[in-house]
Design brief:
Elements: H1 2-18, E1 26-29, E2 33-38, E3 41-46, E4 53-58, E5 63-69, E6 72-75, E7 79-85, E8 88-95, E9 102-109, E10 125-127, E11 132-140, E12 143-151, E13 158-165
Antiparallel strand pairs: 1-2, 2-3, 3-6, 4-5, 7-8, 8-9, 10-11, 11-12, 12-13
C-alpha cells in the first residue's frame, strides 16, 4: 500500500509539472474520442478500437454532426497542436517557409462528439484558498484513481487526503 501512495504522489507531481507545458499533438476525451493534430490533418478516432465515433464531419460545411463514423480526417495545412476547451477544439497551425514562421488556428464545435451538457476534459484543478488539489485519472499499474490532496499549512507541500477508484 505504501508503494501505491508513493507511485500516486510521483504521478501527481509529474502531472503538476506537465500543466505548465505547451499544447499537445493529441487530446483524449475518455470514452468518446481521440483528437490528433499531425501530418497536415486533424484526425478524430474513437477512444476504444471496438467502437465508432458518435459524430461525423461534413467537409463542405466544416461542421461536426451526430452520426456513427469509424474515423474522421480533416485536412489542415501545418496542423501541429490541438486543445479542447469545453465543446470546442482549437487546432494550431504553423508554416515555417522562407524563415518567417506564420501561425494561425482553426476552431471547431465538437459538441456532437462529446456528451450532452457542459463538458471539460479531465484536468487537475486546485483551490488555493481552501488548500485542495484534485488530480483526476491517475493511472497506477493499469488502475485508474482520482486523488485529492490537501495543502500542509501555508507551504506548497501537499499530502494525499483521499483516493477514489475510477475516473470522473
Amino acid at each position: 500500500m505504501k508503494k501505491l501512495f508513493f507511485a500516486i504522489i510521483a504521478a501527481a507531481l509529474g502531472l503538476g509539472f506537465s500543466l505548465s507545458s505547451y499544447a499537445d499533438r493529441m487530446v483524449v476525451l475518455k470514452g468518446y474520442a481521440v483528437l490528433l493534430a499531425a501530418d497536415d490533418h486533424l484526425t478524430v478516432l474513437p477512444d476504444s478500437p471496438n467502437t465508432a465515433l458518435s459524430c461525423s464531419f461534413d467537409q463542405s460545411t466544416g461542421i461536426f454532426f451526430p452520426a456513427a463514423s469509424p474515423l474522421i480526417q480533416i485536412p489542415i495545412l501545418g496542423a501541429v497542436d490541438v486543445k479542447v476547451v469545453g465543446n470546442h477544439a482549437y487546432i494550431a497551425t504553423s508554416n515555417n517557409e522562407n524563415s518567417s514562421a506564420a501561425t494561425d488556428y482553426f476552431k471547431y464545435d465538437i459538441s456532437a462528439c462529446v456528451p450532452d451538457g457542459i463538458f471539460s476534459p479531465y484536468r487537475a484543478h486546485a483551490n488555493l484558498s481552501s488548500g485542495e488539489l484534485v488530480i483526476p485519472c491517475v493511472i497506477v499499474d493499469g488502475n485508474e484513481y482520482n486523488v485529492v490532496m490537501n495543502q500542509r499549512g501555508n507551504s506548497m507541500n501537499w499530502e494525499v487526503q483521499f483516493i477514489d477508484t475510477g475516473c470522473y
